[in-house]
């Protein structure tokens, strides 16, 4: 069988030796186009980023990497040594929205804020928009005009779990990004992990 991190066109058959059967005619431009469309559809909802598609032997392979949405507290834990860089998943990209960046920027101690942003720069590979716009919280150009349904449901769940903490708005926006895009959420916040999981999000939770 091919490696687990590869998606194959469904019409290509495995050979007994683990390769793919079929003639080279099976791997024409039209088939490659179908594979790309299938992979794009799957990756949109399966926390994957396609970074290469290639023809190898008699098969069409699409290689992909996982996407992980990093909660603000993970950067804090990394700086404090409570989580080591090698504890993070090694098979994907690490994402944040402006919400986490704004939370880091609220750190009053200048030295700690500098250390947090240094760790951010070493860890995060992409900044992604939030799915909902909340007045007074969202930043123009860094948010989408969604219907807010998922956000509202997660916010209500958080309020029920922790009695309505002040940062539930921000946490709900973070979790909504993970839920709507199929990202795996990395967090050390118990209530956020529970609220996200309640809405179908894959979560990796650190108890530190």
Question: What are the salient characteristics of this protein?
Answer:
globular, 208 residues, Rossmann fold, 2 domains, alpha/beta, single chain, 41% helix
Present the secondary structure layout.
Blueprint: E1 6-8, H1 29-45, E2 48-56, E3 59-70, H2 72-80, E4 92-96, H3 98-105, H4 110-123, E5 126-127, H5 149-162, H6 168-181, E6 184-187, H7 190-198, E7 203-205
Helix pairs in contact: 2-4, 5-6, 5-7
Your description of this structure?
The chain is 41% helix and 18% strand. The chain has 208 residues and is an alpha/beta fold. The chain has 2 domains: 6-65, no CATH class; 71-205, 3-Layer(aba) Sandwich (Rossmann fold), CATH 3.40.50. Strands 1, 2, 3, 4, 5, 6 and 7 form a 7-stranded mixed β-sheet that branches. Helix 2 links the parallel strand 3 and strand 4 (92-96). The longest helix is centred in the N-terminal third of the chain and has 17 residues, at 29-45.
CATH names the topology of the largest domain as Rossmann fold
Report on the biggest sheet: 7 strands, mixed
Following the backbone from N to C, one meets helices and strands in this order, namely EHEEHEHHEHHEHE
Rg (C-alpha, Å): 20 Å
Oligomer: single chain
Q: What proportion of the residues form beta strands (DSSP E)?
A: 15-25%
